[in-house]
Structures are given as C-alpha cells and as structure tokens.
Amino acid sequence: MSQSLVDRAALDELAGVIGTEKLARLLDRFTTSLTTAFDGADRAEADYAREAHTLVSMSGMLGCADLSQACRDFEQSAKLGGDVTARLAVLRSLRDRTVAALRDLREDTQAAR
After folding, report:
1. pLDDT tens digits, residue range 55-79?
2. Which is nearest to 15 in space by CA: 7, 98, 69, 71?
3. Sign, Cα dihedral of 23, 34, 74, 98
4. Residue 58: is it exposed, middle or buried by C-beta count within 10 angstroms (0-12/13-18/19+)?
5. Cβ burial, residue 37 (10 Å; 0-12/13-18/19+)
6. What is the pTM (predicted TM-score) of this model?
7. Using alpha carbons only, what angle is made at residue 27 by residues 23 and 29, rounded to the nearest 5 degrees?
C-alpha cells in the first residue's frame, strides 16, 4: 500500500477516537461509494464538482490526502469553467488506485486478526 494513498498513521489515530470496528465500517462504506465516484460520461461538470466536494473532507479524514487534494483541485477547476476532461481522467485513476490501496489495507487488517 502506498503511504501517499492511504496514511496508516491517520487511520490508527482515528481508530483510537472512534474504535476499530466503527472505522472498519466507515472504510467499507467509503470504499464502496468511492468505487463508482465520478462515473458516467453524460453528467454535467457541476455534478462532478459536487461529488468532488463531498469527497474532500471524507477522504482527508480517512487518510487519503492525495485524493482529498485532487478532489479539491477538481472542484475548483470545475467551478472556474473550461474543459476538465483531463483532470477527470486523472481523478478517476487516483480513485481506482486509492480503492485498491483501501482494499489491500482491509485484507491486511483481516489477515492480522
């Protein structure tokens, strides 16, 4: 798992506050919703921007700083107008790599039990 994609220290800190079981459920829900984030070719840029806005804080809280920043940057670009096609492709790629990292983390956590 890439440290830059999922910060294990941030997750450990959060687990200390909310507990490991609640964190596991939160990560599962986040991973599931992230899997389909930014899908669809026939959506307006404003729809993608709203989705990015929603993911900024959640991804940051869950130790996915790169994804959080990419969502923030995408949201700002979409608000300014112009073509966001390239940024959307980058964001989708980062989404996919982050989902893979989160799934790896989940497998590692389950194997350690």
Report:
1. 999 999 999 999 999 999 999 998 8
2. 7
3. positive
4. middle
5. buried
6. 0.89
7. 120
Give yes or no for a contact between 1 and 101, defined as CB atoms under 8 angstroms apart.
yes
Concatenating the DSSP letter of every residue in 18-87 gives H-HHHHHHHHHHHHHHHHTTT--SS--HHHHHHHHHHHHHHHHHTT-HHHHHHHHHHHHHHHH-S--HHH
Q: Are 7 and 65 in contact (CB under 8 A)?
A: yes
* List of residues 6+ apart from 102 with CB closer than 8 A: 6, 27, 30, 31, 34, 64
Q: State both tokens at 51.
A: 């989705």
